[in-house]
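QA checklist item 7 of 12: single-chain prediction sanity check.
[x] sequence parsed
[x] length recorded as 202
[x] structure emitted
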Amino acid sequence: MCSARSAFSGRQMAFSASRVAPKVTVSRVLVPAVQAGKVCDLTGKKRNKANSVCFSNKKHRYFQDPNLQNKKVYWAYGQRWVHLKVCTKAIKTLEKKGLDSMAAEAGIDLWKLPFDDARPERLQYLAENKGKVPVAANPRAMKNAEKLAASKKKPRVPVYTITGAIAWVKPGSEALYTTEAEVAVTPIEDEQDQQLKVTLTQ
């Protein structure tokens, strides 16, 4: 408490000093983008910190990255090709120890890695249904045979395009999306001017 004499009334007034809250400034923190580390999946080999030394013994820091390769390794127990990012030293060790032992040492679950299925029944299914898009059964589809025969609307059919995407097209027009069209340009000589005739051939 502190006191001061008022110049207007001549009375002594008492007041307390007000406490001002400190001003808080919030600055925007920029979070750097997360990049995948250059680490071998099986051996855990990382980049090495090194110095390049010139003639005057000046040192400049640089990093020696491991020679990482994206490989598909066949896993016999799971009958699949497992996608791994391994260094060239680990590729040589794979031939000696095997994939199961190296994955157990690294603590990797091979069932959770991206893979390409190599089971015989899967390969047989792909060979029999080449180019067909797997579609689940529609529970709301029309089941009455008479109404289906009398209906003028035909359901669209899914096909794989040239780029690999799935497109729903009308029945009978699948060839327009699955085959490449060749453009043939033939010039036509005319007395007045020359024209170009463009024809599309399948």
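[x] summary fact logged: The mean pLDDT is 79.
[ ] second reviewer sign-off
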